[in-house]
Amino acid sequence: MTNIIKMEEAKTLKRPDWIKVKAPNSYQYHETKNLIASLKLNTVCQEAACPNIGECWSKKHATVMILGSVCTRACTFCNVKTGRPDLLDPHEPQRLAQAVKELGLEHVVITSVDRDDLVDGGANHFASCIREIRKVAPHTTIEVLTPDFLKKLGAAEIIVAARPDVYNHNVETVPSLYKTIRPGARYYNSLSLLHNIKKLDSDIFTKSGMMVGLGEKNDEILQVMDDLREAQVDFLTIGQYLQPTKKHAEVARYVSPEEFNYFARIAKVKGFLMVSASPLTRSSYHAGDDFQKLKNNRSSA
Questions:
Q1: Which residues are [4Fe-4S] cluster 2-binding (predicted)?
Q2: All domains of the chain in start order, with CATH
Q3: Using CB atoms within 10 A as the burial measure, which of 99, 154, 202, 268 is most buried?
Q4: 299 annotated ligand binder
């Protein structure tokens, strides 16, 4: 009975004022949109229905999604299509590099769908993108947001060899919710991947993020923080989960800005170099500015 009541309450939840964003309509937004379309690039901003797309694209910030637009996983929180994946486009790294150059990006975030069908999970494609950007925009800093590369031996080594500035992989939620929210993934595999990056190259900043509002408990959130620090993760992001469609997992609750401030304070005490925690925080939100803060925080630590 209790579970039924909770589900009924969840269905009647309304988004609070602190979640609402303006519809994108600036000239810069449309300029960025047209350039991305002309170069036939996918972005997680569009595919995942990110609420910050208007703000970010108006500033010519975009998170490019490589390896196609169809994912081999079926996470219940994610709006990216699931099914038979696209064929790899061998020219995508060059087109991505061209976009970075034309947009004049100081910092770029590259993410991807999961590609369990590929022997390397797409690691070599990530590395090619990094190398092509270095050729045409050597001063642009590069952040990768990768899948977990479950059972893809050597994938992390391939990407580390290409030397991204930031390696991001999201744990997404607490371990107890993995079976329902992230069924194709393994929590401790994600932790191991992040820790392995630090073992391979301690100079690369590592980053991970999680959503709240899915039914997790606060002590579980704090345990994830401890686990990520044990894996030597530098940067933690925490944001509110938003249900993309009625087919996806429901929002259990909307976490208040005050609670996000609490999580941020605790995370800083636990030793993260950087913490971004707010209702609209996403992995690549303000990524360029945050990277500069990361560097400053490391040098002053």
A1: 71, 75, 78
A2: 21-300 (3.20.20.70)
A3: 99
A4: no
